[in-house]
Amino acid sequence: MSSQSSPVRTWSLRVLGAAIMVVLVLLSWVVLRRLDDHQQQPTPSIPPDPLPVASAPPDPGVEPPAVHVLPADAPPRPPEDRPQGQLTGWSRSMSDELNIPEAALEAYGYAASVLEVTEPTCGLTWTVLAGIGAVESGHGRYGGADLDETGRPSTPIRGMPLDGREGIKTIHDTDDGVLDGDEVYDRAVGPLQFIPTTWNRWAVDADADGAADPDDIDDAALAAGNYLCDSAGDLREPQQYWKALLEYNASEEYGQQVLNHADYYGGRSHRLIGAERSRPLGND
């Protein structure tokens, strides 16, 4: 065989080389484009760990706008018409930066608004409920769950069996497993982790969907608010705050974690709204 390349072979190699160069250029463009797109994607703010230690009461945060509070005997309505949806604009303005789902913020804000009417001397703010939601279940996202737009986790959230193991009290089944799925021991249920006996006392249908459900963060937030307000006086007073939180969970460490989260959310919400108001017009 001749050691010299034929013209056809030389031409073929040149075409192949050019094709390879084109492919490499295209691949480089795709990679750079994806990197650029990734860099432009908003990243939710993650609270610092550990959070600054706060003192009671926590920052009340940016107050939700006025809403129409449904009466307790309001007729059932579709889930998409939940009254908490009145706070969509308010929640959307803070959701990403606070790393709280919009539906959860709406639930906390609406519950606080309801309690301003029903328990005006309680002084409960949405930030306290948000602090509880953060510590109990990451606002309904524990175990990889997602919170849908109606306030329900994609998978049920259940606590450990209250079976008396070290550090856990013993509570034998009280609900035949109806709420928690456990017919031997009780378990905490839902985004705000109600045990069945407590839920049965404070159950409320906060979104008028026809059912009081601890897995629904709308219902759980208002039930938690009612429970806290009944447990103490004015939660804006440090002693009353602690009295209520220790009634909800008899752990000072727990109460401090809730307080730290609540104060962070409150302070951050003021800075967010302040930054939005100071942004130059036309600078989107």
UniProtKB/TrEMBL annotation:
Pfam families the UniProt entry points to: SLT_2
Molecular function GO terms recorded? peptidoglycan lytic transglycosylase activity
Where in the sequence does UniProt note compositional bias of the Basic and acidic residues kind?
163-175
Q: Disordered: where is this region?
A: 39-91, 144-175
Residue ranges occupied by any Transglycosylase SLT domain in the UniProt entry: 188-229
Q: Provide ranges: composition bias, Pro residues.
A: 44-63
Signal peptide limits: none
Can you cite a GO biological process for this protein? peptidoglycan catabolic process
Keywords recorded for this protein, A-Z: Membrane, Transmembrane, Transmembrane helix
> What is the protein named?
Membrane-bound lytic murein transglycosylase B
